[in-house]
Amino acid sequence: MIYTVNFGGERLDRIARKTMQTEQRGSVEAILAANPELAKALEGLAVAAGTKIRIPEDFTPADTGKTTLAWE
Question: Mind listing the pLDDT tens digit for each residue in 2-40?
Fold first, then answer.
């Protein structure tokens, strides 16, 4: 799947959340692995508008075995 960033300044973790249903468990790393040129194109932590990102369809979330609650 190809995801096109519509708005400038969209963070990679939020893109992972939208497209892969999680921003944790290796999803951001999987996106970066599928798009080796993407790390150089980042503007700080944001992805520029118009950037096309390959989203890996065979992604399996890593099992961390640990759950951290937001208030911990």
Answer: 999 988 789 988 999 999 888 787 888 899 999 999 988
Asked if 51 and 4 count as a contact pair (C-beta separation under 8 A), the reply is yes
Which backbone phi and psi does 42 adopt, to 5 degrees? -65, 140
Closest to 26 measured CA to CA, from 62, 67, 69 = 62
CB distance 14 to 23 below 8 Å? yes
Written as six digits, the tokens of 48 are: 């520029």
Domain-wise residue ranges, the chain: 2-54
Residue positions counted in the chain: 72
